[in-house]
Amino acid sequence: MPPVARTPRSRWIQAGLDALARGGPDAVRVEVLAADIGVTKGGFYGHFDGRPALLAEMLDEWEHRCTDAVLEQVDSAGGDPAERVRLAGRLTFSDDLHRIDLAVREWARHDPSVAARLRRIDNVRMDFLRTMFGSFIADPDEAEARSTLIFALAIGRHFIAADHPGRTPREAINLAAELLLRPRP
């Protein structure tokens, strides 16, 4: 009889991130994840000591995908600072990662340890933006303002319900981002 293949650890983590994005941390339940994956919950305990261990690894994976891996890709792609900010934004706030990012932000409102991690990650992101804007904006106040605005735009675009006459919401967001990325005249 051939050995039974175990469900990979990464599959449990991805299922947890999907559940988090759909319903917050309370939706991350072993039984539900096992049903979503199509396996029994027994395999879960071969990878994790329990639900808290899965939640911690989910946050590790989110951090890696939205920060470490993004900065590695941006560094290897090179380009001018505006191109680097555009690429970081496309990678970090792609639809699949943005939904997880929003769920982590909601979770952080109720969990101090998640809030501390989110603050640390957001500080890494803001430091990147400050460096990029600081390379072509001499005024530190303006560089800070542009960094803050473009970061708020990336995170908050999901919450904007306004119409943009003659433009799609994505076109309006892109216009705003491009305005922020322009060098000072």
What do these coordinates show?
The protein is mostly helical and 185 residues long. It contains eight helices and no strands. It has helices at 9-23, 30-37, 51-77, 81-92, 95-108, 112-134, 140-156, 169-181. α1 (9-23) crosses α2 (30-37), α4 packs antiparallel against α6 (112-134) and α7 packs antiparallel against α8 (169-181). The longest helix has 27 residues, at 51-77.
Radius of gyration: 19 Å
Poorly predicted runs are none
Instruction: Tell me how many strands there are.
Output: 0
Determine the fraction of residues in helical runs and give it as a percent range: 55-70%
Nearest-integer average pLDDT: 93
Shape call: elongated
Give the CA-CA distance, first to last residue. 72 Å
Largest sheet: none
User: Could you name the CATH topology?
Assistant: Tetracycline Repressor, domain 2
Short description:
The protein is 70% helix and 0% strand. It is an all-alpha fold.
Architecture blueprint of SSEs:
Layout: H1 9-23, H2 30-37, H3 51-77, H4 81-92, H5 95-108, H6 112-134, H7 140-156, H8 169-181
Which characteristics define this entry?
about 180 residues, mainly alpha, Tetracycline Repressor, domain 2, 8 helices
